Inverse folding.
């Protein structure tokens, strides 16, 4: 353990990524592969890797994992993460409502946590895959928010399909953080 993500102290595991709870769709095994929604839950600018996202940004992103549920045995860790505004992303529904049901929180992560930053805000640990939602062409057209509509409108137009998807903001945030660090 490098000790870079919150809840970890060198030599003492306080928070980790655990196996998923059983898949809510009843598929065999605990591997879950589908699209979910995330809510940007920290203050804008708190985490360098979400700095380009507005407050309460709701975005679709794919998950594909058999383990990755944020969990801890120490409730104080969660309280500390909240107090430090380190919970960057939480699983939510298409309207941004946070709910612990497995349909919304597919792996059973505590507090619906999908992403955390370290206290300095320059390291992000997250489970979903923003790289798989970086272009409109990657977005399913049946999504229930504005992203599905964008995909349907872009259909058949090469340039439109290359436009940024919802996950691109993670990489734009990283780019901005690197530019600031270099200067």
């Amino acid at each position: 353990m490098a000790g870079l993500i919150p809840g970890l102290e060198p030599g003492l595991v306080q928070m980790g990524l655990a196996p998923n709870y059983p898949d809510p769709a009843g598929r065999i095994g605990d591997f879950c592969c589908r699209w979910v929604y995330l809510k940007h839950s920290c203050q804008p600018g708190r985490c360098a890797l979400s700095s380009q996202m507005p407050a309460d940004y709701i975005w679709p992103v794919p998950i594909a994992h058999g383990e990755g549920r944020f969990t801890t045995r120490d409730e104080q860790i969660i309280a500390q993460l909240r107090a430090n505004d380190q919970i960057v992303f939480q699983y939510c529904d298409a309207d941004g409502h946070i709910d612990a049901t497995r349909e919304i929180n597919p792996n059973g992560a505590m507090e619906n946590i999908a992403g955390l930053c370290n206290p300095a805000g320059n390291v992000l640990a997250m489970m979903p895959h923003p790289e798989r939602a970086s272009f409109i062409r990657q977005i399913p057209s049946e999504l229930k928010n504005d992203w599905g509509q964008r995909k349907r409108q872009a259909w058949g137009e090469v340039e439109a399909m290359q436009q940024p998807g919802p996950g691109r903001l993670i990489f734009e945030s990283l780019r901005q953080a690197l530019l600031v660090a270099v200067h």
Summary: Residues 126 and 168 are 15 Å apart (CA to CA). Residues 8-129 form a domain with the Rossmann fold fold (CATH 3.40.50.880). The helical segments are 75-83, 146-154, 158-161, 168-182.
